[in-house]
Every structure is written in C-alpha cells, then in structure tokens.
Write a structure and sequence with these properties.
about 325 residues, alpha/beta, Rossmann fold, about 15% strand, globular
Length: about 325
C-alpha cells in the first residue's frame, strides 16, 4: 500500500489505450466516469447497464462514440463474463442505490447489490482482470455514534440499502474474492448534473414547480460531494500503481444541514415557497459526516469550504 498521495498525472499513461468495463455506466455517476475516460483517450469502455435509471439523452449521444460499447444487460441474470475479457479494470457501480426504493423491494435490492457484486467479481476473475473498483456507501455505518465517521467505525446499517452494501463488502473481504484486487470506496451523498430521484434534484424540480420543499425530520445533516471529485477518486483508485486495498470514505468531510440546502435551492431558483417539515422516515440516517483523512492522504481529496458551491451547475441542467 502506498503512503504517497496519488495524482491524476501518474494515472494518465495507464488510462490511455486501456480497456475498461463500467457496470451501471449509463447512470448518474457512471456516465460522468465514462465521459472522463473517453476524454482521456481510453481505448474502449464497455458499459453494462439494464437502463433502469439511465441518462437517455447522454446514452444516445455517447452511442455514436466508437470508444463506447453499450450492453443492455442485468448483472443478476446475464452471462456477462465474455464482456470482461481483455479489460484492464472494472468499475462496479451498478446498484439499487436509493434508500426508500430499496426498502420497498429488499429481495431485488439484495439480488442486485449482493449477488450482482458476486457475479461481477467472478466474471472479473475469470477474465483475469487484475483490479475492481467497488462503490460502496456511507449507509454501511448506519446511525453513527460520533461525527465525523472513520473507516474503522462498525458496520451497523440502518436500512436495506446499507445492509446490502455491507454484505457486498463482506463478500469482497472474504477469501473467496481474494483472487481479485478490490478497491472499496464508501461514497457519501454525491450530487451533480444528470441525477434524478435524490434530495438535490428533487428539491430543484420541486422549487421550479413552485411547490414547497418537503424535509423529513427537519434536523438532517448530510455530507454532500461533487460528482467530479468522486470521478477523480475513482480514476486514481483504478489506475494508480498501488491504491489502498481497504475501504476509504469519499465525501466532503462537511456535515451540512438539510435546511441550508433547501434555503440555497430556494434562493437559486428565486422561489419564495416555504419548506414543509414532515415526520422523519425511519430507514433514513439523519446525521452523517465522513472523516476524509484517508481520502486526503491517498487520493488528495480536499474538503471544500462550501460543499454546495457547484449547485448552480445542477440547476442549469434543469433549464
């Protein structure tokens, strides 16, 4: 394991001419990652996605790029191994990733997030891919006892989504998966253009519709991180010579009250409607702040003064 901070410059020679597999590559984070890979002259990106939550306009645009191959496939039921042969690295992003959606269908959530991970890891092994980057979640911690949360805090998930990600982590930690070099990144609340269904795009869409913003509980504090920062960490994890082979939190390191977010959205949209406080939802973690000491040490991830400084870029995506 390296003790030196990984830089993008050291990764660029390995990106150029490489072949990459991205599961969930047509989704929010995956699409931004694919854009970066294409921009940096990757030879080929194989995107495996069942198009449950795709960026359709983006898919149509990228489908014209000869470096991108789209495969409409479900990682839980397709024989995907042949798609992995010849690849240098796999980014495993495919997941059911929204807490309340996962609560509605725990069986499907575990099928995708756990057995899907098993199948992707097996396919990577059979194709002799040396490294897999796995996007886990801050939800594996559940309700933390203290903030900020370090990586050695116990995994005590509060909801189905968190339990599924913790289970996938445990599998990848097991001897069964030791034939594969796995880099696990525990993402906090990622935001940016192209997202749907989560709190920031929901707030913006609601405000633009001149309706009150609904906040469940009213006292939430979350750790928001810009998608571009996440993509850079993903790249460093995949293409550095020796990334840390232990989970690393990827967040801003700032606990931001949801009331602050709602006020910013109302100000940006010039909407005078109010915030409507509703009872908290039991499955949701209400207070989280990542300790990003390791992310800074290994990946050079810095805590911004204002985690939401790029919120106007998300708003432009709606206009």
């Amino acid at each position: 394991m390296t003790n030196m901070t990984i830089t993008i410059d050291e990764c660029l020679p390995r990106i150029k001419g490489s072949r990459v597999v991205v599961t969930g590559g047509a989704g929010f984070i995956g699409s931004h990652l694919v854009d970066y890979l294409v921009e940096k002259a990757v030879e080929q990106v194989v995107v495996i996605d069942n198009l449950t939550r795709p960026r359709l306009d983006w898919v149509k645009k990228k489908a014209k790029n000869h470096r991108v191959i789209f495969v409409n496939a479900d990682i839980t039921c397709e024989n995907i191994t042949t798609l992995f042969f010849g690849a240098d690295v796999v980014f495993h992003l495919a997941a059911i990733s929204r807490v309340m959606v996962a609560e509605q269908d725990p069986e499907r959530t575990f099928a995708v997030n756990v057995m899907g991970t098993v199948k992707v890891a097996k396919a990577a092994h059979q194709a002799e891919i040396p490294r897999m980057v796995f996007t886990s979640s801050r939800e594996v911690y559940g309700d933390p006892l203290t903030l900020p949360v370090k990586e050695d805090a116990p995994r005590t998930p509060k909801n189905t989504y968190g339990a599924s990600k913790a289970s996938a982590e445990l599998y990848l930690d097991s001897s069964t998966a030791k034939h594969l070099e796995v880099v696990t990144l525990r993402l906090t609340n990622v935001y940016g253009p192209g997202d749907i269904g989560r709190v920031i795009p929901t707030f913006i869409k609601t405000a633009l519709g001149h309706e009150p913003l609904v906040v469940f509980g009213g006292e939430q504090m979350l750790d928001f991180i810009w998608v571009g920062d996440v993509v850079e960490v993903l790249i460093k994890a995949a293409f550095s010579q020796k990334p840390p082979l232990k989970p690393v939190n990827v967040g801003s390191g700032v606990a931001l009250p949801l009331r602050t977010l709602s006020n910013k959205v109302l100000t940006l949209t010039r909407n005078g409607n109010f915030v409507q406080i509703e009872p908290s939802r039991a499955p949701e973690v209400e207070r989280f702040q990542a300790d990003v000491t390791l992310a800074n040490k290994y990946y050079g991830l810095l805590s911004p003064v204002d985690p939401l400084e790029k919120l106007p870029e998300v708003l432009r995506d709606f206009q």
